[in-house]
Amino acid sequence: MKLDYSNRRADPEGWARELGISRAAVDLYLASDVIDLHVDSFIWNRIFGYRLERSHGLGLFGGRFYSQVDFPRILEGGLTGATWVITTNPLRSAAGRARAFAANLERLRGIFAGVSEQFTVVEDVAGYRAAREAGKHAAFLAIQGGSALDRDADALDLIPGRAILRVTVVHLYSSSLGTTSAPLRRGGDTGLTDAGRDFVRRLEARRIFPDLAHISRQGFWDAVEVHDRTLPLLVTHTGVCGVHEHWRNLDDRQLRAVADSGGVAGIMYQSSFLDGSFLGCRAEAVVRHLEHAVQTIGDDHVALGSDWDGAITPPLDLKTPVELPRLVELMLARGMKESSIVKILGANFLRVVQAMRG
User: Fold this and answer.
1) Residue 234, Cβ density class (10 Å: 0-12 exposed, 13-18 middle, ≥19 buried)
2) Pairing between β-strand 234-238 and β-strand 302-304 as defined by DSSP bridges
3) CA–CA separation, 130 vs 286, rounded Å?
4) Interval 139-156: pLDDT, tens
5) What are phi and psi of 128, to 5 degrees?
6) 287 CB contacts (<8 Å, ≥6 apart)?
């Protein structure tokens, strides 16, 4: 199947005019690798059959909660790559979670196979480069919630080869692996369990990133302690406490630990994490978080991790991939160098994937 979409590359001037931004911002955007570290749209396909191949509007809630991404809007917005997430249902048994992961991996790969003229699943930078050369969107695959694979020591064998790039060790709930950062957890912050520490080691031995988004403060430091110091750390979708104090955000010390490893932190688009807004902030808030991270740890360690379709309320002017060039305009307006913007849009992520997978 070949998808129809509005090709914004064919009319960059018109795109700039529609967004109310400069042509220079659009040109820089189109010249860059643009990679989102965390897209959660597959969960809606699983829950109520949301067809990723179809072009959707903004849904029942005007772009809040869901209906932020579909394949036509990925192409229209010029996203050259993204990490597409298989989120774990914690209410299943350990064996049930493992079975569900295997089935969902097959299902997601099948969806991408159905649009193979414009999308392809990739595992490393070489695959990404080949996809881009062919004019295709490069889809990395990931798991959110390591409890998908906590059934036993052999559960990681359900991942074929290097099909999964990263596993978010814990999600919005504590598990046998460790403690979530979410405030509704039971008990205090006990960090990673022994099983969780071993899980981090085994993921890295397989050259799979243990993603430290969602993890508790103590769990974060436990992972830093046991991880392979020759490999980069990854936090795919987060805010930063230096701009807005929040249980979901990283503090400066955590940011520095990521940078010291050569890793990357992706800034997400959930308004309440960015500035406390309930109904939606503005894209400027994303840029404030990007700017603080760059000022704290340098421009080699910052990326974009939207969490679109992850039940978030995104900025009112950044509801879909089609609005992404607005971030470039705002970064330029705040004095960021073009070279820094190119790194944030995708080059930094590609560097850490290269470091992990060669």
Assistant:
1) buried
2) unpaired
3) 30
4) 999 999 999 999 998 999
5) -60, -45
6) 327, 330, 331, 334
Q: Is the pLDDT of residue 1 over 90?
A: no
- The CATH code that applies to domain 8-357 is 3.20.20.140
Beta pairing class for 81-87 and 35-39: parallel
- Nearest CA-CA partner of 120 in 32, 50, 130: 130
What are the Cα distances from residue 176, in Å, to 42, 133, 221, 272? 25, 42, 17, 28
pLDDT-derived band at 284 (thresholds 50, 70, 90) equals very high
User: What does 32-93 look like in DSSP terms, one character per residue?
Assistant: S--EEEEE-THHHHHHH---TTS---STTTTTSSS-S--HHHHHHTT--EEEEEEE--TTS-
| Per-residue pLDDT tens digits for 117-176 | 999 999 999 999 999 999 999 999 999 999 999 999 899 999 999 999 999 999 999 999
Residue with tokens 């392979």: 228
C-alpha distances (whole Å) from 83 to each of 110, 139, 248, 352 are: 16, 6, 20, 14
Domain boundaries, the chain: 8-357
Query: In this structure, what token pair is assigned to residue 22?
Result: 């400069």
Direct distance between the N- and C-terminal alpha carbons of the chain, in angstroms, rounded to an integer: 32
Q: How far apart are CA 120 and CA 313, in angstroms?
A: 28
DSSP letters, 210-274, are: EE-TTB-HHHHHHHHHHS-TTS--EEEEE-BTTTS--TTSB-HHHHHHHHHTT-EEEE---HHHH
Give 347's DSSP letter. Answer: I
Kindly tell me the number of DSSP H helices and DSSP E strands found in the chain.
14, 9
**Which DSSP symbol is given to 303?**
E
